[in-house]
């Protein structure tokens, strides 16, 4: 259960990061000619705050709840597995970048 939950949380975090990266890489095409509008920094900072909150809740939310419920070993294990699974994702991305470059 802990390993499955950690894998799902890490995968959802990676999926969110991929979607944001795809959006950000296409913003020049989507918003052509809008470089000097003050709303862009507001939108980017808002996206940053939302991203921190979402990823923080995906990685730390359940472990904190479990820890507060007295399941301290399970909470620490879940956090460790989630971070471990998530570490594989950027490692794989850098490996793919190195391999295909």
Task: Please sum up the structure shown.
The protein has 101 residues and is mainly alpha-helical.
Structure in words:
This protein has helices spanning 2-25, 27-30, 39-68, 72-100. By secondary structure, the chain is mostly helical. It has one domain. Helix 1 (2-25) crosses helix 4. The longest helix is centred in the middle third of the chain and has 30 residues, at 39-68. The chain is flat. The model has no long low-confidence stretch (mean pLDDT 92).
Flag low-confidence runs. none
Q: How much beta, percentage-wise?
A: under 5%
Major pleated sheet: none
Amino-to-carboxy terminus distance:
38 Å
How many E strands? 0
Number of separate helices: 4
Q: How do the helices and strands follow one another from N- to C-terminus?
A: HHHH
- Overall pLDDT: 92
Large-scale geometry: flat
Alpha-beta content class: mainly alpha
Overall tally of domains = 1
Portion in helices: over 70%
What is the fold's blueprint, element by element?
Elements: H1 2-25, H2 27-30, H3 39-68, H4 72-100
Helix pairs in contact: 1-3, 1-4, 3-4
Which descriptors would you attach to this protein?
101 residues; mainly alpha; 86% helix; 0% strand
